[in-house]
Amino acid sequence: MKTTIILIALFFASFALMAKGPHGVPDNIKVSFTKLYPGVTDVKWDKEDANHFEAEFEENGKTITVTFDSEGALLETETEIEISDLPANIQTVIKQKYDGFKITVASKIVDNYGAITFEAEIEKDNLKKDIIFDKDGNFIKEQAADDEDDD
Questions:
Q1: What is the pLDDT of residues 26-78, one digit of tens each?
Q2: Are the C-beta atoms of 136 and 143 separated by less than 8 Å?
Q3: Phi, psi for 9 (deg, rounded to 5)
Q4: Which of the given ranges, 16-20, 120-124, 142-146, 147-151, has the highest pLDDT on average?
């Protein structure tokens, strides 16, 4: 009887595993990604939280990160940009408000409604921060930078 119960449990567990791809990414999310980026095959997947999955890949020499909800809907697209492509007032705010910090990475973020924000990762003495600005370069918020080396 115990063997039968174990076999039944393994059978149902295998179905649950088949519905998810690498890193537990559900197939519906992978399908959504493939529809948006059909030629991209080298993708790094991360589970952001219980309901969000993030795909990171390179396209035309730029790092792109897309975030999906658990239903496979695109939430946002973050594209690496040249630091010089940040609006000038963003660079001015950083120089004035974050004395001694250097911009190390810049990104343009477009959410699922088309709203644009910019992110500047800054660093000083191994302290990293992400500074978020609206499409016009107005300061929105500061947050601790995600340390991708911890993955």
A1: 999 999 999 999 999 899 999 988 899 999 999 989 999 999 999 999 999 99
A2: no
A3: -60, -45
A4: 120-124
Strand order in the sheet with 139-144: 44-49, 52-59, 62-69, 74-81, 102-111, 116-124, 127-134, 139-144
Whether 81 contacts 106, CB under 8 Å: yes
Residue 100's region, left for phi above 0, alpha for psi from -120 to 50, else beta, is: left
With beta carbons less than 8 A apart as the criterion, state whether 83 and 122 touch. no
* Residues facing 76 on adjacent strands: 67, 111
**Helix runs in the chain, H state only:** 2-18, 27-36, 88-97
pTM above 0.85, yes or no: no
Using alpha carbons, select from 68, 60, 81 the residue that is nearest to residue 23. 68
Q: Cα dihedral sign for 102, 144, 96, 111?
A: positive
Q: Class of the 25-150 domain?
A: alpha beta
H or E element: which one contains 77? strand 74-81
Write out the two tokens for 132.
């978020």
